[in-house]
Amino acid sequence: xxxxxxxxxxxxxxxxxxxxxxxxxxxxxxxxxxxxxxxxxxxxxxxxxxxxxxxxxxxxxxxxxxxxxxxxxxxxxxxxxxxxxxxxxxxxxxxxxxxxxxxxxxxxxxxxxxxxxxxxxxxxxxxxxxxxxxxxxxxxxxxxxxxxxxxxxxxxxxxxxxxxxxxxxxxxxxxxxxxxxxxxxxxxxxxxxxxxxxxxxxxxxxxxxxxxxxxxxxxxxxxxxxxxxxxxxxxxxxxxxxxxxxxxxxxxxxxxxxxxxxxxxxxxxxxxxxxxxxxxxxxxxxxxxxxxxxxxxxxxxxxxxxxxxxxxxxxxxxxxxxxxxxxxxxxxxxxxxxxxxxxxxxxxxxxxxxxxxxxxxxxxxxxxxxxxxxxxxxxxxxxxxxxxxxxxxxxxxxxxxxxxxxxxxxxxxxxxxxxxxxxxxxxxxxxxxxxxxxxxxxxxxxxxxxxxxxxxxxxxxxxxxxxxxxxxxxxxxxxxxxxxxxxxxxxxxxxxxxxxxxxxxxxxxxxxxxxxxxxxxxxxxxxxxxxxxxxxxxxxxxxxxxxxxxxxxxxxxxxxxxxxxxxxxxxxxxxxxxxxxxxxxxxxxxxxxxxxxxxxxxxxxxxxxxxxxxxx
Length: 616
Fold this sequence. Notes:
Layout: E1 2-7, H1 13-22, H2 44-55, E2 60-65, H3 70-80, E3 87-89, H4 101-111, E4 117-122, E5 126-127, H5 134-144, E6 149-155, E7 166-170, E8 177-181, E9 193-201, H6 207-219, H7 225-235, E10 240-244, E11 249-250, H8 257-272, E12 280-291, E13 301-318, E14 323-324, H9 338-348, H10 354-371, E15 380-386, H11 396-411, H12 424-436, H13 443-450, E16 453-457, H14 460-466, E17 470-474, E18 482-487, H15 500-505, H16 509-530, H17 534-552, H18 554-557, H19 559-570, E19 574-576, E20 583-587, H20 594-603, E21 606-610
Parallel strand pairs: 1-2, 1-4, 2-3, 6-10, 14-15
Antiparallel strand pairs: 4-9, 5-11, 6-9, 7-8, 7-9, 12-13, 13-15, 13-16, 16-17, 18-20, 18-21, 19-20
Helix pairs in contact: 10-11, 10-12, 11-12, 12-13, 16-17
């Protein structure tokens, strides 16, 4: 069972005085801050009460006010279906006699005999996003309550003065609050995580309130909420976890008419920029592995290049219901005839891109729940398009997942702090491997997240110590011209992985040594690129393919793939596989042979294009 206290007992004399003196709002004179109009004219407290009562998640909700404004809230309660008997009057009539936040909470605990878990919320805070779901807050609280309490924060706007807010230093990995910086200090780590009076106490922590008050009464020190947070987090080292809400919170504490008008205008302007009126579109590009692959799944090293020839594009926009739109070609739902269905199914299979959108959305929601990121209750429509050739190992699936993730992050206002760039590739890989059982490694996702020419070190010590590899963006300024050839009518690219993974996990010496050799090739290739030794790079790429052929075998590589390699080498090019199969990437140092090479591929029905590097 969880109870809730809404605090609206502030006297707000500055704001009340300035409203009266301005003459601009005669109908608001004497009205408590919580009952002033918020965005769209609805009263600030009404928004809080709507969010709380709609989900009916609290066993009891109490409202704490003062004697001066008690009648206002009694009338509000009668009109808003709030139990009048749950209004607690702290007895104060003026600012000088105020009792403070902690004493108000203590008053309710004593008089209402609360022994349950408890949420305390400042009911006179103006907040930006009225669609946030308080159920997500309670779910995360339940997830963490055995370990500690819960403090809500939001990311401040750049225009906000950080010294006027309490700031939380939150551990990125665990979400535990490491330190609390009072509004009178400046956090050394430049954190913008503003703490607000929105706090979840597990029932075992409630006694800390009376303990704090007793200690402060004996020492004549401040008993403010700000001081309490410093005490439990910095002094007592109590476990408190942070959760980010998708909304900004304003009108905290002492505010004047200018603050009220400024933030009301700002939030109304933000509301006017509804996502219904704008679409977010994100692209993600195909990639080619130049050296090292396929060792990225085996604690190896690789160098890969994102290319702008091919891409996946995902669009998101707000809608009444959550809708995933099938692609007319990749997710067909209508056919000319049964024979047409048979032909399309036989050629393209049954695995279009819709499953990728759905799996990404599911994993995104799960990630946010586990990381303590509350998402707005906002539905959307997702659709995608792609021109990346299917089943030729150019990372078409991960491109759709990556573009979808970028759309979701922007739509829900997540930043790279919420999901750091270095862990995004693992998230994308997990979507494919854990949700959809797609055989894959990290390389594709790293290149598609970082974009450009990327050197990747997936050494075991790095992966186990930091959870990701080391990634270095290399210059593409002086790269030679690469070309790409692929099968026009490919088979399933996943089959190319064969049983090498099983053999590696069993510790088969040939496979272990091969993966170590791939890593050596990668370091040698990195040096060759840096000094522009293209002859050396060409030799390394050929050796990379030969070693791959040795451990995978011709049957796994496929007749068509091997034929593409032969054609390239017959025309003086270095050639290797850029991915899991169905395509080859090469470099021809003799430009005079390019026309003959192109004609040779085209004559046998292959597609060949000059690679255009994609630079972020």
